[in-house]
Amino acid sequence: MKNKILVAAIAVMFIPVANATTYGTDVNNSVLPATGGMAGASVARTVEGAAAIFGNPANLTQYKEGTTFTFGATFLDPQIQINTPFKGSSNADNYLIPTIAVTQGMGGLGFENLVLGLGLSATGAGSDFRGVPNSGDGNGEVIIFMANVGAGYQLTENLSLGFMGTIGNGYAQASLNSNSSSAHSYGVRATVGATYNMGATSFGAYYRSPLKITYEEYIADGSGGFWDDAWQQPQEFAVGIANNSLMDGNLQINADIIHKDYSGADFYKDFFRDQTIFALGGQLTTGKAQWRLGYSYARDPIKRNLDPGIIGIGNNFVIGDIGNPNAPLNVTGPIVEYFQATNAGAIWEHSISAGIGYQVLPMLKLDVHAALAPKEKQTIGVYEVEASNWQAGLGFTWAFK
Predict the structure, then answer these.
(1) What is the tally of structural domains in the chain?
(2) Counting C-beta atoms within 10 Å of the first and last residue's C-beta, which end of the chain has fewer, N or C?
(3) pLDDT at position 178, please?
(4) pLDDT at 177
(5) By the 8 A CB rule, do 333 and 303 touch?
(6) What is the 3 state secondary structure string of 154-212?
């Protein structure tokens, strides 16, 4: 019984960063008001300025005329359940992810080909197994606020380039009660991208650097001190294609491939493998309305065949025991497998989405979307896991020319 509680407590302290997202530990553009209805597909061409700010910044050059401002939010509800060897569900759900984005064409100052962009979004998640027998009653949470600022520049008639800088401010609370406390810190990352527009067809690509946030002295190391831990969102490589040649130019189809390098990311590399995402989305315009559908496949990132011995997570091989921070507890393969199982939000591979946009006023557009990742089952070590996720969001975009 004591071993089960210890295993649960260690596992839960790592859960928060992964079970709130559609793609491993990131939401990418899948939660944006309009793009969320297209499964986030937006690397080569966008349907809203926010998708350029939080995706490929080269697409900012689509918004050279005047100013656009988007304000929205998406409600996200991950469902995680362990069926064996204990049975219970995490009560950490009901997350609200904001979207604030502004694009500004600089033509009024004589820079016709330059567009600035800035935005604010966040990701956050947690785990809460309090009251679940044999689970250790652990609960923890992490929230990362992301502020983006950058620009896109149309270099030639066909080629656009873009750069976006990100400051991520993270807040983390582990779940070991007597030997942990909340901590916060920040990190920076950059995104560089390009698009090549051939008229009906366009191609896009971007590279996004890692986002490393180090939380200092928040977990007892079992020897009277505390250790730091760096959580590093992985670097990304993305390519995409878009086409609007069908139905008199009223049907736009986007297809993206995104690769996340978890094997090179601090903290995650000990339990995640690399993840590749395929996203397909379409938008049909009829008068003032846009009708959207999307599908994505994200490879399960759970790392298999773990070393049963002491393997460490984030370069840490021991932590303090519950109620006794000076008593060392080794991090072993079975403990990490429990963490992976409880981190079940990462196991779903398929999601479908739909959305509607409507031009309410000449300067105002409303976008709504919903998405579902159907329930999937998986066995990780001795743990049987079920996970599903659904989300719904809306946003308003004002355009001033």
Answers:
(1) 1
(2) N
(3) 54
(4) 46
(5) no
(6) ECCCCEEEEEEEEEEEEEEECCCHHHECCEEEEEEEEEEEEEEECCCEEEEEEEECCEE
Q: Please name the residues in contact with 154: beta carbons below 8 A apart, sequence gap of 6 or more.
A: 61, 64, 113, 160
Other CB atoms within 10 Å distance of the CB of residue 252: 24
What dihedral angle (degrees, nearest 10) is formed by the CA atoms of 277, 127, 74, 168? -70
pLDDT attached to residue 22: 62
Q: What's the pLDDT at 314?
A: 75
pLDDT for position 136 = 63
* Count of other CB atoms within 10 angstroms of residue 284: 15
* pTM of the predicted model as reported, rounded to 2 decimal places: 0.91
Q: What is the pLDDT of residue 302?
A: 87
Q: What's the confidence (pLDDT) of residue 14?
A: 36
Q: At what angle do helices 2-12 and 333-342 cross, to 10 degrees?
A: 60
pLDDT value, residue 1? 41
Residue closest to 35 by CA, chosen among 281, 387, 304: 281
Q: Are 52 and 34 spatial neighbours (Cβ–Cβ below 8 Å)?
A: no
Residue 324 parent element (H or E): strand 324-330
Count the neighbouring beta carbons within 10 Å of the beta carbon of residue 288. 11
Q: Which of 9, 31, 26 is nearest to 345 (CA)?
A: 26
Query: CA 333 to CA 382: how far, in whole Å?
Result: 12
In this prediction, residue 315 carries a pLDDT of 72
Q: Look up residue 185 and give its amino acid.
A: S
The pair of structure tokens assigned to 142 is: 């992490």
pLDDT for residue 15? 35
Phi-psi region of 11 (alpha: psi -120 to 50; beta: other; left: phi over 0): alpha
Residue 11 to residue 339: CA distance in whole angstroms? 4
CATH of the domain at 312: 2.40.160.60
Q: What is the pLDDT of residue 10?
A: 36
Q: Spell out a b/e string for 346-365, using b for 16 or more CB atoms within 10 Å of the CB, else e.
A: bbbbebebbbbbebeeeeeb
pLDDT, tens only, 70-122: 999 999 988 888 898 889 888 877 889 999 999 999 999 999 999 999 999 98
Dist. CA 63–CA 60, nearest whole Å = 6
**Which residues of the chain fall below pLDDT 50?**
1-21, 177
Q: What is the dihedral sign for C-alpha 196, 163, 143, 87? A: positive
